[in-house]
Amino acid sequence: MTQSNRSLQRAGTWLFYAIVALLLFLWLQPLAAQKSGNTIIQRTIGGVMLGSIYAIMALGIVVINKASGVFNFAHGAMMMIAGYMFFSFFNTQAISLVAAGLLAFSTVVLGFTMGGWRELFIPQRLITALIIGIILTLMMTSGGTEQRWLHALTGAVTGAVLIGLLVERLTIRPLIGQPIFAAVMVTLALNEVIRGITTLIWGSQPKSLLIFAEPHPFLPDQFVRIQTPITIEPTGLLGFLEGPVNIDQPRFMAFLLALATFALFWFFFRFTNIGLAMRATSENQQLAQSVGLRVRVILAITWAIATVMAGVAGLFYAGSSAASSIDTNFHFVILRAFPAVLLGGLESIGGALVGGLIIGLSEEWAKLLFTGDVAENLAPYIVLMIVLILRPEGLFGEKRIERI
Amino acid sequence: MKKLSLLLTIGLLVALFAIPAMAQDDMGLPDWMEHTECTEDLSGMEFTLWHIGDLSGPYAPITQPLVAAFEDAAQWYNEHGGICGATLSFPDPTTIDTGGDQEQTSVIYSRVSSEQPLAIVLYSSDDAELLRDQVAEDQIPVLISAGSIEGLYGGEEDNFDNPGWSFATNPLYVDQLGFFCEWAAENIEDPVIGYISWPSAFGRAAFTPEVIAYCAEQGVEFVETPEYFAPGSDISGQVQNLVDAGANILYTNSLATGPAEIAATVANLGLSDEVTLAGVNWVLDTSVGFLGQTALGADGLPAVNGLLGSMPFAWWTETDLPGVQLLTEQADRNERGPLTRNIAYILGWQTVDLYYEVIVQTGNRVGFENMTGADVKETLENLQFSPLGMVELDFTDGNRDAKMNRIAVLRYLGENGGPAELPDNPPVVVEGPNGPVLVPIVVPLTDYGETPDLRPGQMEMEE
Amino acid sequence: MADHIRPAGIFDTTYEQDIALNRTRTDKFLQYGGLVALLLIPLLTSRSFLGLNILPDYVVVTINTIAIFVIAAQGLNILIGYTGQISLGHAAFMAVGAYSGALLAKGFAIPIGESMLQIGPFSFWIALPLAALFTGLVGLLFGLPSLRVKGFYLAMATLAAQFIIPWIIEHPLQPYTNAPEILQGIPQPTIGPLVFARPIEMYYIIVPLSVLLMLASRNIMRTRVGRAFISIRDNDLAAELLGINVFWYKLQSFFLSSLYAGIAGALIAFERNAITTETFSLETSIALLAMLVIGGAGYPKAALFGVAFVRLLTDVIIPAIGPAFNSTLTALLPFVDGTNIGPSLQPIIFGVALVIFLIFEPRGLAYRWEVLRIAWKIRPFAN
To answer: Is residue C55 within 8 Å of C244, Cβ to Cβ?
Structure first.
């Protein structure tokens, strides 16, 4: 194919995109015109904030996919169970020493035997494991309710790490080298199992996850959701606004925290040794093994980190939602983050952020233009279908070159 | 004299021992219950009241107390002689839980119908609609608390000549909304209703052309497009859309988390002063009162305070009714917590009482040995009865639902008694299973009145 | 394949013998005998005219459901097991079949300008194939992305079908489908004076159809098309180099697979006389995938084994052992509330069973069955 021919084709493609965009604009414009400018601005801000939480969900899936080549359909269930664990540690007045110890030590044992059971018998390691286990237990149980944040964070992170390690050890490791279909099915099965365990332990009544909260005016030791909105007045540079714009305060906090989390993980992958090792492993497992990286350990760490990320995303989403609660249908939220992953590209960390924001925005805008259930279920997938047809590898994904 | 006093003493002693013994014999139901007398003694027999429904999905906050009520009621009725001496029993709840999955409903129904029950209890309109044809096929009457038109009377093509096998103890959802419109027209200035619900059959059941036309006649407008939301999702967009379109009342056909979530969102958006919240009879449930405690409205009380709804039956606070006294006593005895003392617990007992009456009447008419579902249906069709004296039922003339309703409001109990009001009457705080809680109460605003009949084709349309 | 393994001493002397499905007399006896036994089952329940009460009534409904899901799962087997594609939206295609079948049988009118175009009502015997064909075409549409994407991307594109199709049924088509509320009054199949109204009568439509479709799919897999499917599954690049039009055959696979799903969906509609979109949820799609994994994707009997195993597990075994679990678990784990055990047993047992199959028996029950069958056939020799 000649150069001119190719550029002609490219021009044609862009022309096609432009026509589609124009048609879309012409269709949506009259619908949007009925809405006030302020409503549109408010929805846009809402979309960005929601999108940032989807981005964290997408990031967790991308990280796992990069490391072990598995698309984690159980991510929603992991979000849910980590949220429930946070609830338990946050709301229990006196945390049982036995339960906390059991959780801490099983996590530590699994963590220290990532490379094999023998590692536990090295004296130094055994002592380190013991010390870490004791510290974790103390962090989960020490003090009263004023320490609840410490308890809950330690407990939920430890629990999430435990689940990540268990999942990797019991189901992912035995399936290395199996076809892609088996990898899809095993995470779907895990989704069911985790959902069942959550129902078994916590029941199906919704549990309150008030993390962005202030003390309840009547109930001692109880909280209410922060309800004073952040108001942007139409003054000065913002004079073009038709009226004050209200931003939900918990959502805004979740947004800031989500961005911070994203930056933190990005920094982790970019600059820490373990992050570099993880990236190397994701490039080529055999090559990584041959230069002395312990692929099994790195895989286990990846799953643990991704599960923690799932928990963080679940906490932000549930904590900043209107009801500030979590129930056993919570894992369905992830169905809206899946398109974000594919939009950005399965291998791209930056893509997860962009994908998340696009999905968040399209959902909120769809809510503006159509009714709610269209927005929640359909908009992300319509956007996804368009992208899959135009750019099958996602916006920032790698084009795969296959050989026989 | 001595002889006389001795005789008297002996007589007294005999009486002292005999009274409890006689009472033991006559363990029948208390006098205030107006049940038909049995003509046969059925000792040794057993009646199983089958029920199928969602015990673990979105309906769980409502249905778990229902199961508790069945357990308590079975225990109480069996202690008081059972059904003419026969034992009343219920299936193991783990075997009849659908989890909100209609595929499971079909599977469990096929198992339950094999037992050829005399009647079954369903909880959700979705299930009732799904099984409508099958129960007619298998001749099994259905007792349900509240129903949709399709579930009780069938689709439009059926013309209501042959209403189905389901009998509801609450008014139709459309009639409830119509009744609410009558009230709103008088009590709210320029009422415009925005309809926001779950996207299920139950959630959509009340939004019909007949309701819109009837409410327009009363002077109540509707926002044209209703909004639907999946449980647990963010609904600020939906609420904003409705308010932007002019709604000053948000009406919902959802329960438990649904109304609580709407109330919280309205409060978050700072719209508490502009919008009145209302809904179906389920929104007045205590579960809403508990779930709604974590978001405050403009008045400083929880956002669900002031939620309006239909209340077609007696409530726990109406303690002058013997039925309410019995339920309170039994809930105390079985140590039922505040979460269990809700609408569903009341409805559970009512359903059992209704079943008792129906079985006795049917048995007296055709004999207890070869009673069938068709016989039970015939009894139901001619029934005028008030289960536990808490709700008036009249299934004659092809009726399948209750007709009396009233409007009530969800409040919290205040320290000086009555509903809490700030700053004079702060709410009472009690210790719940997971820490302190406020106590939701329901306050009737109107007397019982007849609901309009808003089934398709039943209302005279103004041309 | 086990078809070619036969007891020692039996040789093919003609071409017909070589391609016969049942090579030995024992095979024939078992197959036809099994079929006859299957058809006799409903007569043993209390609802039959014989008035016997040997089997409980729900057996008939259970077998109906199994037979319907076998058809759907076999469709998925064609797509996943034979062609190596993936679909997370199979239940949505069943919904297409169910609604188009129901609407064709009920009849509906499309407004075209001023006039109304009345379509139907058709009898069951016309509505069913039309619905199947229509579902096939819809499946074709959602198979189009398979031209450019595969693996997880294709999974996601089919997941989109699981959201888009129910939405179309519930919104633009709501006046016809009444969705998400229940669509009722679906006419019953009739042949002359015979009316197939109750499950026990529908049994005689569903079960033979299911058997027929299983045989059909088995034969398709022995044709040029089937071999092309398998070559695409094994290595699509190599298949393309061999001159197989990969995209064309992928589309055929999507078409066939959806055709099966459409028949299954339509049968559900006619068996229950009432449908909602909730029956065809994502959970159903996932359950179908799980059935295929447990059955052994890529084996002709996978659908049968998988569906039977999962249905028995969820409909019979779990309810039976539920109460026992209830008492032991509450005793063992003091923090567990008895009321939570019922709803949690199903997902846990189902998920664990699936994981166990994936790890320890990835080729599924059908493979184990073949191994046993071969061992029996070539006895006394070792396998």
So the answer is: no
